[in-house]
Design goal:
Layout: E1 2-3, E2 8-10, H1 15-24, E3 35-39, E4 42-54, H2 89-100, E5 107-112, H3 121-136, E6 140-148, H4 152-155, H5 158-166, E7 170-174, H6 180-187, H7 198-209, E8 214-219, H8 228-240, E9 245-249, H9 262-270, H10 274-281, E10 292-299, E11 303-310, E12 313-320, H11 322-329, E13 333-339, E14 345-346, E15 355-357
Parallel strand pairs: 4-5, 4-13, 5-6, 6-7, 7-8, 8-9, 9-12
Antiparallel strand pairs: 1-2, 2-10, 3-4, 10-11, 11-12, 13-14, 14-15
Helix pairs in contact: 2-3, 3-5
Amino acid sequence: MALSQRNQFRVAASSAELMNFRQQAWRLYEPVAPVLMPAFGQEWWLRPGLTFTPFANAVRCTAHCAFCSEELQRYDGHQLTARRLIDDYPAYFDRLRTVLHPFQGWPLGLSLSGLEATAEPQWLRELLACLTQVEHEGGIFDEKVLYTNGSGFVNSPDLGLGLQDFGLDRLELSRCHDDEAVNQQIMRFNRNQPMRHNAVYASTVRWLHQHLPVKNSCILTQLGIATLPDVERYLTWAAGLGVRQVVFRELSRLEGSYLPNVFTEWIEAQRVPIEPLLAAVVPTLETPRSGWQYAGSTFGYYYYNEHYRWQDTEVIFETSSYPALQAANASGVLQKLILHSDGTLSGDWDPDSRVLSRVAAPVPARL
């Protein structure tokens, strides 16, 4: 078993072992011993390899994906950080430097996600400048990933160059179907967003691919990509744009842990379970589907991936469990750090849960 800071990679030696991987999935993840670290007047148990997310929320998102996790609220949840925009950039970036200071010298993965980071180009430019300064002062980002629908690159291509200069390791670009009409039914871009059109998407991807490693991210849905022929058609289309890495993700398993709403209903109605696809790709190691080659499996604390080669493309199938994520968060070990738009640093997507530090309330002026 090979260990990395963030996950564990294994190659099944037999078909029986591969079947066990699929049945147990993230349950086979072996937690790495946590490390006790002082910060903000307390000591915290940290998972080696934890990631940091400065929640992207300067403006409303440029799309309204039917599966958006920011529209889900747990039964034990308090508020959604997506509801509060970042309205004071200087204060926000001062706060960003402050919350990262205790972690100087501690390797963090940088996960640029939340809503849409490219939707407000000035915010993203200032964010990259601030994070670069943090690195110069001793901060360590050993992996840097941007999760995006790509909309901001259309009118601000300099963002791609800025991310290249910043040393971004990977840009994960969401696209849920190779037909723009079907994709629009799932991702629901705003009407004024050119990225909804395939021609614009294609030209943007080809340009980005010259400067950054681009990984396509496709959510599996009954409406969109649901079968192995669908997957292979999508891969042929993506390869034509120069993309050589694609991940197909099952909608995260909620298992009744979120309040019912139109988003949870859509997710459950549209879910495409990953297991039948995996069984179709490699029923056994001795009898893979023509053109497919198994490369290994990744185990995370709440997700499981299988890696393949298909022609010249690396293909990943992923499944994940939100209850497993919540159980890990409730263990007392911080799994990730999130700077919310109100300045709260927490170990949870809920800004009122597992709080490390808040912005001090202003002291009332004396009369």
